[in-house]
From TrEMBL:
Protein name per UniProt: CRAL-TRIO domain-containing protein
PROSITE patterns reported in the protein's UniProt record: CRAL_TRIO
Transmembrane segments: none
Domain CRAL-TRIO span(s) in chain numbering: 82-247
Species for this entry: Anopheles christyi
Pfam family membership, one: CRAL_TRIO
Signal peptide: none
Single GO MF annotation: phosphatidylinositol bisphosphate binding
Domain of life: Eukaryota
A GO cellular component annotation in the UniProt record: membrane
Length: 293
């Protein structure tokens, strides 16, 4: 199944202490709107994100598919070969970083240049969500995920590119439908006008998110960041780390996007094709699809 994730399920279940019985329990009773072809690997990410709470996992699964269905501008036409996504990949940097010593996944993003005319908000969010998906595809369920943003090339004119409807959907997905536990958002090289950005996004952010938002100025001492969150061994050289440069890591990730193209296309078909109630039986069995309401 091309829509399945690529990590080793047995290793992930053992690492995160997840139960196959719980995966089976998620399928009964049926969850409206969840594709019948959902796999155990996909389910395991949600179960882990919800600390093995079956009821909460079912709730997040429903929200996840509702948000994707109701946000086609952010979740449809996800072909890495498309002109819109290629434009984002040429003008912005995206890639996952290695898991931290605590086991957290890390997803990095920054603007490659400061030209606001090169920044297309909806497509940028779409490509960012694809990068998160690529991280889950490879790394699977983890104790948490960290979002790492670099604001080095962000200017005031970029604020004029923001789509408020998409901002709302962005935070709804991250807060209510993300199949991962959001542990922290770290913003590097924070700009002087960040208060204006916060004014725009604050109505859509839960207090829990604000509590894990960390801002780092360009001249900040990052020793505690390296010690508590992401060590130098897991960071690009541009941020004082031991890895390749941001540009080199982005170029490497372009190859990964190319490799995952069949997955992105198949995952979208899975969501937009026949979907509906999950049925009883083996979790490895191809389940009969029902119509979306």
């Amino acid at each position: 199944m091309e829509h399945d994730l690529g990590f080793d399920l047995a290793a992930a279940l053992e690492r995160e202490d997840l139960s196959r019985e719980d995966l089976k329990a998620l399928r009964h009773p049926p969850i409206e709107g969840v594709p019948a072809t959902i796999t155990d690997k996909q389910l395991s990410c949600f179960l882990d994100a919800c600390d093995k709470n079956i009821d909460e996992t079912r709730k997040v699964l429903k929200i996840y598919y509702e948000v994707r269905k109701n946000g086609p501008e952010l979740f449809s036409n996800r072909d890495p070969h498309s002109a819109a996504i290629q434009q984002c990949l040429q003008n912005q940097d995206y890639f996952p970083l290695p898991p931290t010593p605590s086991g957290y996944s890390v997803v990095f993003h920054r603007l490659k240049n400061s030209r606001s005319s090169n920044y297309h908000f909806d497509e940028a969010i779409k490509t960012y969500f694809m990068t998160i998906d690529s991280c889950l595809y490879t790394q699977g369920p983890r104790p948490g995920i960290i979002f790492l943003f670099d604001m080095k090339n962000v200017g005031l004119m970029h604020l004029t590119r923001i789509n408020m409807s998409s901002v709302r959907k962005f935070f709804q997905y991250l807060q209510d439908g993300l199949p991962a536990k959001l542990k922290a958002i770290h913003v590097m090289n924070v700009v002087s006008f960040f208060d204006k950005i916060l004014y725009i996004i604050k109505p859509f952010i839960h207090a829990e998110i604000l509590n894990v938002l960390y801002l780092h100025t360009s001249n900040a001492n990052l020793d505690s960041f390296y010690d508590e969150w992401i060590p130098r061994s897991g960071l690009p050289s541009d941020l004082g780390g031991d890895l390749k440069s941001i540009d080199e890591l982005h170029q490497d990730h372009l190859k990964e996007f190319e490799r995952l193209r069949p997955y992105f296309l198949a995952e979208e078909r899975q969501r937009n094709g026949d979907a509906g109630s999950l049925i009883d039986g083996s979790t490895d069995h191809m389940l009969k699809s029902l119509s979306i309401d």
